[in-house]
Structure formats: C-alpha cells, structure tokens
Design brief:
By secondary structure, the protein is an alpha/beta fold. It is built from 10 helices and 9 strands. The chain has one domain (2-245): Metal-dependent hydrolases (TIM Barrel). Strands 3-5-6-7-8-9 form a 6-stranded parallel beta sheet. It has a 3-stranded parallel beta sheet with strand order 1-2-4. The chain binds fe (ii) ion. The site of fe (ii) ion has 5 residues, from loops.
C-alpha cells in the first residue's frame, strides 16, 4: 500500500527533503501518550524514514500531574532510544529531544527556576488547553520572551476557543508567538472545522513551522492521505522553514 503512495507525487509524504526536521512528535518510549515501548518507537521511525524524513526533535509532554516529565527523564529516554537504534543498525535517522510545555502554573515555576528544553537554540514549543486559554496567557508569553525564549505555539488551528474569535490569532502573532501547524490538520483527522481553520491560517501566511505531532501509526496512516494540491502548495514553503531548526 505504501509503495503505491510513494509513487504518488501529489502526496505530502513525498515532500520531505533530507534537511527537513520534524519539530513535534511523541516517539520516546513510555513517557507520555505517544509510543508505548521501544518497538513502537522504532515502528514510527521506520515509517517516517520511508517518507524521506531523517531528522526529528521529539517533544514529550510536560504537563503537571499528567505527564511529570523532566529534562533528566526525557534525556534518559532519548539516550535509550538512540542506543537501541544503533544496536539494530539504524544509523541514518537523527533523533534529538525538546519538549511540549503546557502553559499552566507549573510551567511558570519551571520558567523561573530551570533551563527549559528547547527545539533548537531559544525556540520553545508550548501548548494550551483546547477549551480554555490561561487567563494570563499574554503575560506568560511576555515572560517567556523576557527569559530569552521564542515561543512556538503548537497546533493553533486545534484551539476551539479561537475558532469563533479569529482576531486572537493575529493578536498572538503580534505578541511574539510563532505558530506550528500540525500536518495532520490538513487531513480530516481532527475534523473538518480544524482543517478549514488550518487552511485559512495557511492562506493568511500565519504559520512559521510545521510538525507531525505523531503519537502512533494511525496518525501516520492519516498523514499518507494528505494529497489536496491546493493545501500542499500552501504548506510547501513552511516545510522549508523547518530546515532552520535542524
Ligand atoms: Fe503534541
């Protein structure tokens, strides 16, 4: 099935160059809602390799009381995965780790007390709840930048609270927030409404980067279905931007 898709030039999975880096995924084994074990991590990596992806900065959740990950836990799992990849002869796939920080009160504590895990340099991947933004969202974004980080908001198209208040997206960009599109939002995986918002944000050139946000093979099954020529044309220049974060 995949070899057929690979031949179809009009498919997202044919657009990744070797310098592309996927900056959002959950492929470290057993530390969040992504890959459950090393075998699943490898299965995800093998599938992404078949698309020509060679670089990942994977981003486990850091979410108080749900996924209490720390840089030490994440780096420990990263070392475990990289050692395993080497032991099974996968040497052409570069995995680094950052994190996906939920902007909650715990995050404010971390921001004041420790060095945060970035995607590269000062680029920090953050998310908020899908239903409610923190009351002091703009204050947090300001504090992130005062601390020297550049916030990248994960999947802005998925936040239902902004769908009826589209001006909020412009406001967030003006507040220094960069936007990362979830590639899966270009399929119907999150629903037609999310897809429509993603298309609008693409047309308005609001996105800075993309990410797959891969948690499991089902996500990649959906990614292989993205073949809308109009959307692919809109997303192609943003795939290029991701090379800056390699
Ligand atoms: Fe994520």
């Amino acid at each position: 099935m995949f070899s057929f898709l690979k031949k179809n030039k009009n498919n997202l999975t044919n657009l990744f160059s070797e310098d592309f880096v996927d900056i959002h995924s959950h492929i470290l084994p057993g530390i969040d809602d992504g890959a459950k074990n090393l075998d699943e991590s490898v299965a995800l990596i093998e599938r992404m390799r078949s698309y020509g992806i060679k670089n990942i900065v994977t981003t486990p959740h850091i979410m108080e009381s749900v996924w209490d990950n720390t840089p030490a836990i994440i780096n420990g799992k990263l070392n475990e995965l990289n050692a395993h990849l080497k032991s099974i002869g996968i040497n052409d796939f570069n995995v680094k780790a950052g994190a996906e920080y939920l902007l909650d009160s715990h995050f404010n504590k971390l921001l004041n007390t420790e060095k945060l895990l970035t995607i590269k340099d000062q680029y920090l991947l953050v998310e908020i709840s899908y239903m409610n933004a923190p009351l002091n969202l703009y204050e947090i974004l300001f504090n992130i930048q005062i601390a020297g980080y550049k916030p990248i908001l994960a999947h802005p198209e998925r936040y239902l609270l902004f769908h009826e208040n589209f001006k909020e997206y412009t406001k967030l960009k003006e507040a220094g927030c960069l936007f990362q599109l979830n590639l899966l939002s270009l399929s119907n995986y999150y629903g037609k409404h999310v897809k429509k918002v993603a298309q609008k944000l693409l047309e308005e050139k609001q996105y800075d980067f993309v990410g797959s946000d891969t948690h499991n093979l089902r996500h990649l099954d959906f990614m292989e279905k993205i073949n809308d020529a109009k959307l692919l044309k809109l997303v192609t220049p943003i795939l290029e931007n991701n090379k800056l974060l390699k």
